Amino acid sequence: MPTNTHEDTSVTFNGWASTGTAELKEWSYHPRPLGPNDIEIEISHCGICGSDIHTITSGWGELTHGPCIVGHEIVGKVTAKGNKSIHQINDLVGIGAMVDACGECSDCKEGFDQLCKSRAFTYNDVFRDGRGGNTYGGYADRVRVNSDYAFKIPAEISAAE
């Protein structure tokens, strides 16, 4: 049986996922392989937002990409990085509602990457960069994202803040 090239089977991430009801269940997955611009974050904190509730209860429609780990207000430390990442190991970073975009289209170049046809939201979405894989949010122990969508948090600010 061939290995799914969209998964890094050497690691397993664990989180709390919805299958379209408000009841979250423990769920594990293999993230996509770490790319040159990617970082892996050990999550220490994640906020809760109304959009998380609308997503897990299917209030905005059915989940489109299997079990969904919500959470787009993520804070954690970088534990692994691709060779082109803008962050360093142990940097404290925050993640918002997007985790990837092409960076090359006119929308991206004009600062409107949220309109990019290749953008990927933090959860209940897919990466469109040709490497494949689903996106999963912060109600988990770790996450992998494009480092351009992680924002370094100054040392003077605690992760909890």
UniProtKB/TrEMBL annotation:
Which Gene3D superfamilies does the entry link to?
Medium-chain alcohol dehydrogenases, catalytic domain (3.90.180.10)
Listed GO molecular functions? metal ion binding; oxidoreductase activity, acting on the CH-OH group of donors, NAD or NADP as acceptor
Which of UniProt's keywords are assigned here?
Answer: Metal-binding, Oxidoreductase, Zinc
Alcohol dehydrogenase-like N-terminal domain: residues covered: 35-154
Task: Show which residues constitute the signal peptide.
Answer: none
InterPro entries in alphabetical order: ADH-like_N (IPR013154), CAD-like (IPR047109), GroES-like_sf (IPR011032)
Q: What is this protein called?
A: Alcohol dehydrogenase-like N-terminal domain-containing protein
